[in-house]
Amino acid sequence: MQTSGFSNAPVTRLLIAWIVVGSMLATLTDTKMFFYIQVVPHFWAYWQWWRVFIWQACYTNSTEVLFACLTLYHLRIIERLWGSRKFASFILLTLPYTSLLPPLILALILRPLSLNTLNYLPAGPTPLLFALLAQYHAAIPPTYRYKLATTATPTPSTAAMSAITLTFTSKTTSYFLPLQLSLAQLPGSLLCAGVGWAVGYAWRNEVLPCSEWRVPGWVVGEKGSGAGAQGRGGEGFEGLRRRL
């Protein structure tokens, strides 16, 4: 039976709480202008390079907060599949790449190629969400497939009616909410989504350094599997998962 709510997903619950609280604090303190990035003037005029470390801290509008929270809630299945320790390790390992790469690519590559047209990068952890979405795409198989057939109008040159068949899976609707995030503030939001997806697959293929690193178990509330744990009935879920 599928587990509901945030059972066995404490890190996901913390991330959703941070997205909501961070956005509220930015609104109440009137500090939203410190999180988004404009290459000019923030980088080349004011030299505010510290923005590359905080621009993923919160979203600046309620629509993106809603879509991000719903997306994360759906992706909690990844934490249940991996365990909280591996999930938290993935977040910490990919965070430097998802924070630094989008603004640097925009400032050093895309802006010069676009003749200084591209200049804006929206705030929010969209790259991190798409790095998680890449894991969902690769690790969770679809449970069923279905087809939608449409019939085209016959043309004067042919009396036959051609049918267009589209194949979908049980996972198709899961991509609608993150798609909204990637299209929310074009083209910057699309850049964030693309970089996040690439970082997620780079981690999965062990291209990123230290991909096997894990945070200490106490960070996510895991207890040791020594004699005390054996006396309470075994190694626990994490130990059994590693053995399998």
UniProtKB/TrEMBL annotation:
- Where does the record place the region Disordered? 225-244
Q: Kindly state which keywords UniProt assigns to this record, in alphabetical order.
A: Membrane, Transmembrane, Transmembrane helix
A Gene Ontology CC term for this entry? membrane
Can you tell me where the transmembrane regions are? 12-29, 49-75, 87-110
Transmembrane is among the record's keywords: yes
Task: Please state the protein's primary subcellular location.
Answer: membrane
Classification via SUPFAM superfamilies: Rhomboid-like (SSF144091)
Residue ranges, compositional bias (Gly residues): 225-237
Which cell locations does it reside in?
Answer: Membrane
Q: GO molecular-function annotation terms?
A: serine-type endopeptidase activity
- Topology of this chain in the membrane: Multi-pass membrane protein
Q: Which InterPro entries does the record associate with it? A: Rhomboid-like_sf
Q: What is this protein called?
A: Derlin
